[in-house]
Amino acid sequence: MPSNNNSASKVSGQLNSVAGTLQETVGNLIGSKDMSRKGATRHTQGEAEISRAKAGGYVQGATDRITGKKDAIMGSVRGDKSRQAQGNARHDKGQVKVSAH
């Protein structure tokens, strides 16, 4: 079954995708069109959850990159080395998130 909460999860999506594929296969083997159809639906829902989780991670990473760059620039302009370093760190963290998705 798809996750009941609003946050998409790659792990939950993968579990649902695999479980759906298994259910669909068993349905095909035993001749149960209903089981096969339900399995295909569960697989599709799992794949959609994976896609939502990836998109959410990408958006969060892009937001971190932009906010981090802004903070680094503001720190540089104001001579605040601490803010500049924190901004650079957040930018880099965002870059890793974007690259992972």
From TrEMBL:
Residues 69-95 have a biased composition (Basic and acidic residues). It comes from Botryobasidium botryosum (strain FD-172 SS1). This is CsbD-like domain-containing protein. Residues 28-56, 69-101 are annotated as: Disordered. It comes from the Eukaryota.
